[in-house]
Amino acid sequence: MSEKRTLITVKDVMKENYDLVEGIATVRQALEVMRYVETKCLIVDKRHEHDEYGIVVLSDIAREVLAANRSPDRISIYEVMTKPATTIHPSMDIRYASALFARLGLSRAPVVDHQGHIIGIVSHTDMVLKGLLNLV
Length: 136
Known about the structure:
The protein is built from 6 helices and 5 strands, in the order αβαββαααββα. It is an alpha+beta fold. It has a single domain, classed as CBS-domain (Roll), CATH 3.10.580. A 3-stranded mixed β-sheet has the order 1-2-3. A two-stranded antiparallel sheet has the order 4-5. The relative contact order is 0.23. InterPro entries: CBS_dom, CBS_dom_sf, Diverse_CBS-Domain. It comes from Mariprofundus micogutta.
């Protein structure tokens, strides 16, 4: 007797809404956007078509600005972001995405389509709360 497993993909659990910030923005400007949209991360937009996306999460800001006693008005997002951002394909099984997150120490990642355009963002929380309960 074989066990039937339900495939739940990243696209099934990702958030389609995400926010972009320019890398030249100050940390204070980025924090204002984060506070307004109540998010824990921002995607840093490409500067041109051959550039890569970046990502900045609150823990980056806490480590690089707050703990280092640096001014959020004098530090740009480029100085604290992770670039290139590790991206996830929407058709990836959430089990593999979760394993990748664990191996790379990620908490969230942009979801990109075949053309490299961001279509959403996924987090460990999304995979656990939206996905794990639906797995058989």
